[in-house]
Design a protein that fits this description.
219 residues; mainly alpha; Double Clp-N motif; 12 helices; 66% helix; globular
Length: 219
């Protein structure tokens, strides 16, 4: 289960078990925000897998126009050249920027990128990280207390493009970025080591994951 899924379950239980109406309402307010975020993650997953806005709209019970207005930022603008990032990767990058901003970092670094992957919860990259023992909250604490975070994200993204091209993919996927980040040999290796997570272990977990999930595009 993704981190968002766990939070939703926890908040729903807190709201249902609350003895005071104010506590229940507070939990419900947080739950609505988390459900909206979870919906965004699932829309990104559907679009990455090749679903159309029409199919997504039908599943949500709303109009195609409404879905397109709300989630068009997950898809590349018209006329984009080169390999575009997948909707799931766009979401990861948005989360990475948010993590960097929340931690007062002047730039997005590799650890922020890994936090973004964990937070977005895709079925390949995030699943491999959690399978190897990396948890979002624990890693965020390590990143928060780390000094001089670094990591050439542009280099990672450039190598991800080359990896996608070699594999014949039409999009740059989260898995491409994760592989590039884990072979980067940056300072984030020390952060992972403190939590008992070796990059090689993550890559092994990634290889062990099934690639025939109908809702997930193989990278």
């Amino acid at each position: 289960m993704s981190d968002s899924g766990k939070i939703i379950c926890r908040l729903a239980e807190a709201a249902a078990d609350a003895t005071e109406p104010e506590a229940a309402l507070e939990a419900l307010t947080k739950l609505r925000r988390e459900v909206d975020e979870f919906e965004r993650q699932q829309v990104a997953r559907a679009l990455t897998a090749g679903r159309s806005f029409k199919v997504v709209a039908r599943a949500l019970g709303v109009s195609r126009q409404a879905v397109h207005r709300r989630y068009q930022d997950l898809t590349p603008p018209r006329g984009t050249r080169g390999l575009p990032p997948s909707p799931e990767l766009r979401l990861v990058i948005d989360y990475a920027k948010a993590e960097a901003e929340a931690l007062g970092s002047p730039a997005v670094t590799t650890p922020h990128l890994l936090l973004g992957i964990l937070r977005a919860g895709d079925r390949r990259g995030a699943a491999a990280l959690t399978s190897a023992g990396l948890e979002l909250d624990a890693f965020r604490r390590e990143v928060t207390t780390a000094d001089g975070l670094c990591g050439d994200v542009r280099s990672i993204l450039a190598r991800s493009v080359q990896s996608a091209k070699r594999r014949g993919d039409e999009q740059i996927h989260v898995e491409h970025v994760l592989r590039a980040a884990l072979t980067d040999g940056g300072a984030h290796d020390a952060l992972l080591a403190r939590l008992g997570v070796a990059p090689g272990r993550v890559l092994e977990a990634l290889e062990a994951l099934p690639t025939d999930d109908p809702g997930c595009r193989e990278a």
